[in-house]
């Protein structure tokens, strides 16, 4: 049986998150001032590391940026960031 799990991210460029293999990222949003991703997971699957990158609007982005996940805002919309997953 699958479940939806929440994972917190930091406002930093490169980071990894440990989650069950084949987890499907559903959304990225800010909740109580924390950047969170929600994923549909099978908790019985083995745990793996997945890499994510966060870029601010106007920041330089490498050509091999990965898969776009979503955009989120902090500080009442003053700062806008974009989340990508490594491929």
What does this structure look like?
The protein has 87 residues and is mostly beta strands. It has one domain. Helix content is 0%, strand content 63%. It has strands spanning 3-9, 14-20, 24-31, 34-41, 47-56, 67-74, 79-85. The strands form two sheets. The chain has a four-stranded antiparallel β-sheet, with no helix packed on it. The protein has a three-stranded antiparallel β-sheet with strand order 1-4-3, with no helix packed on it. 11% of the residues are buried.
Short description:
With 87 residues, this protein is an all-beta fold. The protein contains no helices and seven strands.
How many beta-strand elements?
Answer: 7
The oligomerization state is single chain
- Order of helices and strands, N to C? EEEEEEE
Largest sheet: 4 strands, antiparallel
Mean pLDDT: 95
Could you estimate the helical fraction of the residues in percent?
under 10%
Give me the Rg, rounded.
13 Å
What spatial form do the alpha-carbon principal axes imply?
Answer: globular
**Helix-strand category:** mainly beta
Protein topology:
Layout: E1 3-9, E2 14-20, E3 24-31, E4 34-41, E5 47-56, E6 67-74, E7 79-85
Antiparallel strand pairs: 1-4, 2-5, 3-4, 5-7, 6-7
Q: Which key terms come to mind for this protein?
A:
3-stranded antiparallel β-sheet; 4-stranded antiparallel β-sheet; 0% helix; 87 residues; 7 strands; mainly beta
């Amino acid at each position: 049986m699958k479940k939806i799990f929440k994972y917190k991210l930091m406002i930093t460029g490169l980071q990894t998150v440990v989650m069950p293999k084949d987890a499907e990222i559903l959304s990225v949003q800010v909740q109580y001032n924390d950047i969170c991703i929600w994923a549909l997971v099978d908790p019985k699957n083995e745990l793996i590391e997945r890499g994510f990158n966060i870029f601010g609007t106007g920041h330089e982005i490498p050509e091999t940026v990965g898969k776009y996940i979503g955009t989120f805002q902090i500080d009442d919309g003053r700062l806008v960031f974009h989340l990508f997953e490594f491929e």
